[in-house]
Amino acid sequence: MDFNVKKLASDAGVFFTRAVQYTEEKLGQAEKTELDAHLENLIARADCTKNWTDKIFRQTEVLLQPNPSARIEEFFYEKLDRKIPSRITNAELLGQYMQDAAKDFGPGTPYGMLCLMHDLAYGTIECLPGSTLITVGDFQKRLGGAEREFLQTSAINFLTPLRNFLEGDWKTISKERRLLENRRLDLDVCKARLKKAKLAEAKAAAAPDFQETRPRNYVLSASASAAEHELRVAQTEFDRQAEVTRLLLEGISSTHVNHLRCLHEFVEAQAAYYTQCHKHMQDLQKELSSANGDTFPNAFAVNASTSGVSTAPSPLSSATLPGASSPSRPPNPSNALEASTLKIEEVKPPATGTRKAKVLYDYDAADTSELSLLADELITVYTVPGMDPDWLIGERGNQKGKVPVTYLELLS
Fold first, then answer.
1. What is the pTM (predicted TM-score) of this model?
2. How far is Cα 334 from Cα 345, in angstroms, rounded to an integer?
3. Residue 231: what are its φ and ψ, rounded to 5°?
């Protein structure tokens, strides 16, 4: 192995003198050259930028890929300069499981079959070949696709610039700062040598030895001159390195501008992703509502011991009868107790237990105790003790009256 012994010895000597100077500075036994205030502020700002950029980068990685094992795998692929394999998202996997389950269940159950009300006028129901699980699974895959696009966009437009700063620009800045610190230590070593040479020369001049005065003074003077030359060289190198470091640190401002632009792109990608997800879920809700809303309406079930209302019969029981366009009118309560005690104008809504309901069909009141209804309007409903379970009290603005449960879809 070929190496220069003299250079190795020289480098070892320089390292040793720097270590001694650094130790003495820490112990307060040596003077330290302070950097100018502007450079100190730039260094503090750069350290702050690096620390927070690193934290934001790490947490963004966790946000985009919560699985630590997957993050470690991606890290090794990047270090090996290999393409990261495509990974299926959790939503896509869920969608695939749903579709596989639908195929396995078959079309024999409502869970596996998408049923549509074919014609309410004739009360017929048609089960289409599309599966509910297949439909939901398809939308889950769409959500997964939107997530995949968001992850890719965020990695390119946000994570990559942050990583480039941490692994590129910051490493360059750190290297130049280490060089600046070494130049400062060299400068302080030269200052200490010159100070010692001056003190020795002054001491020799104050107490001369007449036999060796000329040779000793000559040697001390030469030593002081050499120390002054080394100091001038060290000062020049220190000033040059300080200027290089200052220029690099001032570039942090442009880094902030670049990261600000990347942050805007990240927010735009997030907004687009959540907008897509919202649209997909709205479309899915509409499709399921139109497909199964009339087949499986919400039931209104409360504790009979506290409210006196039992589960209402489904409108399907009357809607499926030939020639029926809406549920048959339930019998008007004839209970003697209710007729004698229940007065609509005196009924007050309870403190808790009111609910919103959507009217499914038009309804014409039979008397003043009932409330006429229009399809698709929203009303507030509640029950009172002693009421027939097929009826509720409905309120719409200032109007109040009994309404049949079978004409309603309870929402909350």
1. 0.59
2. 18
3. -65, -40
